[in-house]
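Friendly challenge for the regulars: who can give me the C-alpha cells for this chain first? No prize, just bragging rights.
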Amino acid sequence: MPLPVIDTRPLFRRLARDIVAVIRSLKPDDWTRPTLAGTWRVRDVVAHLLDTALRRLSFHRDGALPAGTSARGPASDRDLAAFINGLNAEWVHTAERLSPRVLGDLYARASAELADFMEALDLHDAAVFAVSWAGETRSAQWLDIGREFTEVWHHGAQIRDAVGAGPSPDAAWLHAVLQIAMHALPYTYRGVPARPGLSVVVDVTGAAGGTWTVSHRPDRRWDVDEGRGSAPSAAVTLPDEVAWRLLFNALSIADARSAVRVEGDAALALPLLQARSVIV
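First reply, four minutes later:
Bragging rights claimed.
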C-alpha cells in the first residue's frame, strides 16, 4: 500500500508544550549536559529549536529568506548542507549570550506561533523548499510540514535523552516521525544495483512501530510502501528507539549493526543502516 499523506499539523502544539515543559524543568547543570547531537550541549539544542522555529516563521510565514540564499535554494546537496550547518553554528554561538530562562521563554513563544502557522497551511499546496533528503526537487507541502515536525521531535528527544527524561509521552508522535522518515528510503537505495522484485522489509517494533517495504519497480526505480511485501529479499527488524536514532544521525553504523536483526540478503539490507532523514 503506497505511503499515505500524513497530516502532522495537529501534532505541533502538544509536542511544543511538552518540550517547553521539559525545558522549564531543567536544573542548572542540565543545560550543559552532552547530547546525541554531536558537540552540542542541551542549551545548544534548545537554541537550535528556537532558531529553526524563528527561521520557519520568517521565511515561510513572512517571506523573508535568510541572507545569502534565494528562492531556488543552494545548487547541490553539499551546498545545502554547508549553508544549513553554517546557519546552525552561527546561531548556537550567538545564543551563548542568552540565559537558559530567556532561551526557554523565547522558545515557548516561537513554538506556539509555529503551531499556529502550521495548523493554517494547506497540505496539498507546493512546498516552499523541497525535501532534499527524500531526493525531491519539488515536494507537496504535507511532506515539508512533516519534515519540520520530525525536526522538532528529534531535537526534543535529544534533550530528553540527555537529561534522563525518558521517551516522549505520546508514541503517536514518534510513529508520525517514522512515517515521514521512510520517504528517505528510495533515495537511499537509488545507487543499489537491482532487478524488479527485490525488496527489503523494515519492521520497527515498539509502541511507535510499523512495517514498511522498499522495493525495486519494473520502471527501474526504488519505491517504499506501507506494510510487508510478499517474499522479501531481506528483512530488517529494529526497535522504535533505535530507528529514530539511526534515521536522525545519532547512531553509528557499527552500533546500528548490533541493534538490528537482519534476515535474508544482508548486503541488500546494508543501505538501510546508512539512511538519513535529515540533512547531513
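The longest helix spans residues 141-163. The mean pLDDT is 93. Your move, everyone else.
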